[in-house]
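Re: the pair you flagged

First of the two:
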Amino acid sequence: MSDQTPSALKRTPFHAIHVALGAKLVPFAGYEMPVQYPTGITAEHNAVRERCGLFDVSHMGEFLVRGPGAVDFVNYVTTNDVAALAVGQVQYSGILNERGTFEDDCLVYREGDGIMMVVNASNAPKDLAHISRHVARFDCTLADVSDDMALLALQGPLAQEILQPLTDVDLSALEYYHFAMGQVAGIGDIYVSRTGYTGEDGFELYFAPVHATTIWTALTADARVTPTGLGCRDSLRLEMGMGLYGNDIDDTVTPLEANLGWITKLAKGDFVGRDALVSQKAAGVPRKLVGFTFAERAIPRHGYPVYCDGAPSGIVCSGTMSPSLGIPIGTCYLPRESAKEGSTFEVEIRGKRIVATVVKPPFYKQASHR
């Protein structure tokens, strides 16, 4: 959360709607964002798992890369293999520094004439400056279009059924981590992307801010759609073991430590941070991000001290009482030799050390994403 005063905060195109709905608004990544609505975080969480929720995530940053060298440029400043993407495909990736640690994580959208990168709101200015240093080497242009994009995430097992009558995109033919351009609620030039951050099936819609009220109204006309805030977005992603920048990954952590080797294609050729990762892999990755739970009914929170074999081992990265499972869940980094499933360690909560057991994410295994 930010320490910015409300007057300094940006507002998304949906701000007036959130106020009218009675949302609790908080400073987040430089924006005034809804953390929950009067229904409450647990009810919103369950709505996404059982039916459908609608998130305003317009605070996210978007960069457009255009020109013959667009793929090569994005391939150099991200970890995954952009060249392997077909037009209309999306990939999860990382933006690293020369030390091989995360500047950010991102989504990469392969378009016919270039790339759209979607980055975390709090990191967008830093990311732009970081990758801009390399753009002159490639035959392409880089533009920050964050203020020209509204973004809604419709998430839940009923998302396709609810969205299909409103769009000309054939959602049954749209595979997971693919997108198409089409109309929604009579508005054209909308990115309809089968992606999300909840583990459920769903779609992310990118469009011009002027259409915000029209799109929101059309989607929420269906009584099965619940407005949902950042609070349940966090509990949903944690149940799926999805990392959050600033908690689970940051500029002290490499993808190999964060179990994100699968988005790190060392064989693709040179990219920013590659040399550091090759060295770390050769030397042996010293620590690993793990999921854990307690037998006791205690709640792990970000920042609680972690002890492995009695020695300090960092802090809890993310933690909550799982709304879907009714058990404590969390993440932290442990020495590699102690990171095996079933291993135990301790988390200190208000002066008491609680025994934790390493479990393999996702914690919630019944999600509907395809």
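Second of the two:
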Amino acid sequence: MTQAMNSTPSGRTSMSAGWVIFLLSMLIGLQPLTTDLYLPALPALTAGFGAAMSQAQLTLTALVLAFGVSQLLWGPLADRFGRRPVLLLGMLAYVLASLACTLAPSMEQLIVWRAVQGAAMGAAVVCARAVVRDLYEPAEGARVMSKCMSGLALIACSSPPLGGLLSDLFGWRVALLVLALFGAATLALLVWRFEETLLQKNLQALSPAMLLGNWRLVLRHPTFIAFAALSTVSYAGLFTILAASSFVYIQVLGWSKTAYGLAMLANSLSYMAGTFLCRRWLLRFGVRRSVALAGLVSVLAGTLMGGLALAGVQSGWALLLPQCLFMVGHGVHQPCGHSGAVGPFPQAAGAASAMNGFVMMLVAFAVGSWLGAHMDGSAHPLAMGVWFWSAMIALVAWTLVQRQDQGERAGP
């Protein structure tokens, strides 16, 4: 598989490994771009519509809920018809929904179109994860996914500062317009260069019996349970930061939108560092030990943030430094979690990826709903939420994942 990384992945496509990683980075990078770019503008958007904070957070939670649910359909569609047609359809819908968000005349319509945007985004992310499984075995797939996550981190790095700058200079609608432009560019690249990676389409993938059978197989598989749990609890910690941080930094601590964007840039750079660390650790320690070490990083970050909050330290740096440490661990957990969750299912990678994404977004929706009801004008909900999820990450990393042997026994 090392040779495949340097030439044609698995011999299944004429696309080079570098081109595959670039395209997949754009596809999975759509998620942080869609969630992060408008975060600095969220308080201004809320004030502009005269809406409540809970309504504003629905623009995020509705997106992730639609994103999660849609994956249950996109996954089987990708297994039945192939990755390419599903990607093209999803990206076209994403561009149109992004334009509608830009022109939305009310908060209610913005929430609706953000949900449509999230549903369309599901096609990109599901297919990207499935393509990794199409082309690489699970252990190699974790390293490839970590490279894609580095590309994702580059997109995530630029999103909050760019969103803050555009919001300050031109208003929040221009920030949302960038999503349509990025989506259009990605769609054009897919039309031009992406080749189908699924060798054999599953003609029964959409039959109710096959759907239920695949989902039952996925949900009962111990490897899926372990790695899906890892990616879910790690994303729940990240989503706590995404949903609460703009209000805490801008409204509670008084930071400017640009300063907040730079804070999120620091988070993204830390995440990128985590993905590089992931690749080094995977080569040296393997999946299980790498995840265990990252679990220690995560729980240290959460404990530091929660401890400072309980001690009465309400400062941006008391939040930002632990957040950056948390993101280093997240950069290990996500590529390992995503690759590990689909690893046992070479013939149903789309369904496995979809179920993993659905569970992640369902938990994220619950996190966003809880935060919307518990934001109290302090940093405590943010800090306590990250502390809780960091403890859950460590628990999963040190128990469920340690019982798996992803590299040696990845088959069903």
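The chain is about 80% helix and 0% strand.

-B.
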